[in-house]
Amino acid sequence: MNRRKFSKVTSLTLFGSGLLAAFPSIGSDLQAKSKLRLGGPIFEKFDSPESWVAAVKNTGYRAAYCPVGLDAGKDDIKAYKKAADKAEILIAEVGAWSNPISPDKKTAKEAFEKCVASLDLADQIEAKCCVNIAGSRDAEIWAGPHQENFSDDTFDMIVETTRKIIDEVKPKNTFYTLEAMPWIFPESADAYLRLIKAIDRKAFAVHLDPVNMVVSPAVFFRNGDLIKDCFKKLGPHIKSCHAKDLILKKQTFMPQFDEVQPGLGQMDYRVFLSELSKFPEVPLMMEHLQTAEQYKSGAEYIWKVEQEIR
What we know:
11 helices; alpha/beta
């Protein structure tokens, strides 16, 4: 599931209530002991703040993706925010997935407007953050590699664009964040620090997805060190995290990685959850899985590891 489709799925019309049957017993004992702000997509249809809260509670999650879209009215936004607060559900993030640095001017303009609207929604509903990637200099692939992606000009363009997005909204209740990708800034903890300094806006922060920072077998097999480095350097700036897992394919001459559900790969969740426990209000959001059962299994694995490391 790509991010564009994922954004639609996590709005109001998801995959249907039939799949919710998989969730009521989801790691009930482990979840009850959990201190994690774990979340993921909701597979039950909902049409009100009350039915949304019920759907989130049925999964055992304590965090959720933003339940309304960019077309939501102020009254609806306030109602969902109020319901989330009452139910102690943390709204983790609003996705702004788009390419505001595209060389195609129309694409870049539309992406900028989407980022502004998404950040404004995040501020109104008081999500932990609005998240996007920096984009790409590729005119056709919005989140793909390009020979100019790591140039000084592209770095400057990311800085300027991010400043403009933040300055347009001037958020008071949330942060604009960039998620790391292996083919553009920020691709490492040090790149994040460089951007934080260059952008120089209090409302700019970090969205941490360690899987996206695994760029070689050396990093893959020592990903616990990568995770520790990120939390050491970026900890107070991290506003939300993504939970995925990764495998390295065998019998290939060049490294090839595949995403899998948490627990089926080799990402060091013991280190990840240990570091995250130092920041209890930072949500951990599962993504990119296809079925309710996969999310159920992923959540149970994460809750299990959380209890083991206590």
